[in-house]
Design a protein that fits this description.
alpha+beta
């Protein structure tokens, strides 16, 4: 029975006794039934689980009829009118999204499924039935957000909500999901089968004593073989806690989510694991390289020659590297382990350093150590064997004594304080 039919049938029963607001009419039993019916109706109208445009339009029609049935200038009518306004905003939002949809795009369970007409670079399987998909021979849909793939005939069977739904949140959405745009840093918080009532954490199918259930090392929950295909992936929590990159079995939803989050800089290494660089020489080297990136950035940002050469654009694919030195993505950690990130950063730093040392505009901003005889050598904050004063940002040799600029500043301050006295 649709929402409209439910509301109409209940209001028909109410009208035989009195209006919705006239609870004083009829017997005591009738009054109790009216109050119960009204509460049930309000629960229906307060539901926020409607995500398709047709369901929202149906609910809008029901809310409008409810407003006409309620008494004027009551708190209940005000609350229902407020609900109507929110539904209209949600309806407009979905209509705008439909305007920007691709041809043939289908939306269900927060997936944005588009038809695929070209072959995949590798063999792919339908996430619903598990069989091979052939885009050239079959009608295949793929989610633009989470890459969920399925046959056209499997659209009615889809049960997994898009793991990238957090990218496009709906108003009043109250669903609590582990896939919320952040990564879990707890090592396999394993939940027992008893706590899961011997049911799959995704599709709620019953587990049998013969087995067939699999553990997701990321979420710590048990899944059936339809929701857990045995795919493996390094787990962020094990990397940050133990520097362990060994692949672990994860469910299909987690596998999609980790791929979606792979290049998003959401890992604050200084906050999550500040001492990790002590046990990892590779990570310690990357931290030094990233510090050099930030030091060279100061010169390149004010150099018009570097701007014309677009040297800072060399880090475009890892924009967070020029913003701070602590944020990392999941892919950054994987590339640190296989050594590719160090080599990639080394080439960029070499190009930047060559420009700064040869550019007359950048060389003009260099430093000369005032504490030793090597006056001809230009020093930069990223030069090896140098130290940068944290107070005045002057650069000098690491083996030299206290910063001379700070000494002069303190002496001037003393002289001024005496003159003021």
């Amino acid at each position: 029975m649709s929402l409209n039919e439910k509301l109409l049938s209940r209001y028909t029963r109410m009208s035989s006794v009195g209006s919705v607001g006239a609870f004083s009419l009829g017997s005591a039993g009738s009054t109790e039934r009216l109050e119960s019916d009204e509460n049930d109706n309000w629960d229906l109208l307060s539901s926020t689980s409607y995500t398709s445009l047709s369901e929202i339009q149906e609910q809008i029609s029901a809310v409008r009829r409810t407003i006409l049935e309620t008494e004027v200038n009551t708190d209940q009518r005000k609350a229902i009118v407020h609900k109507l306004i929110k539904l209209k905003i949600k309806e407009q939002d979905l209509e705008n999204r439909r305007f920007y949809q691709s041809p043939g795009e289908v939306e269900t369970l927060r997936h944005s499924l588009v038809p695929i007409n070209q072959a995949f670079p590798s063999r792919r399987y339908c996430e619903e039935c598990g069989s091979v998909v052939w885009p050239v021979l079959q009608t295949i849909y793929e989610c633009k957000t989470c890459t969920h793939v399925l046959h056209a005939q499997c659209l009615s069977r889809i049960s997994r909500k898009c793991v990238g739904a957090w990218l496009h949140p709906l108003e009043d959405e109250t669903d609590i999901s582990p896939f919320d745009g952040q990564l879990s840093y707890t090592i396999c918080p394993e939940i027992s089968l008893v706590e899961q009532s011997y049911e799959c954490a995704e599709c709620s199918s019953t587990f049998y004593p013969s087995g067939g259930h699999r553990l997701c090392d990321y979420l710590g929950k048990w899944y059936c073989q339809d929701c857990h295909w045995g795919y493996t992936s390094p787990v962020p929590a094990r990397i940050l806690n133990n520097w362990d990159f060994s692949p672990k079995q994860v469910c299909q939803a987690t596998y999609q989510y980790l791929n979606l989050m792979r290049r998003r800089a959401v890992i604050d290494l200084e906050k999550m694991s500040p001492s990790l660089s002590i046990i990892s020489a590779e990570l310690s080297a990357i931290i030094q390289q990233r510090q050099s990136v930030l030091e060279m950035k100061k010169y390149l940002m004010v150099c018009r020659v570097a701007s014309s050469l677009k040297l800072l654009r060399m880090l475009e694919e890892r924009q967070h590297f020029v913003e701070n030195e602590f944020m990392y993505s999941f892919q950054d950690l994987l590339d640190i382990d296989n050594g590719s990130l160090s080599a990639w950063l080394g080439q960029i730093l070499e190009t930047w350093q060559d420009h700064i040392l040869s550019c007359i505009l950048c060389r003009a901003k260099g430093f000369v150590c005032e504490l030793c005889s090597e006056k001809e050598d230009l020093l930069f904050p990223f030069s090896p064997g140098t130290e940068t004063c944290p107070e005045c940002n002057a650069t000098f040799h690491r083996n030299c004594d206290e910063c001379p600029r700070c000494q002069r500043i303190r002496e001037r301050s003393k002289i001024r304080s005496k003159e003021d006295q």
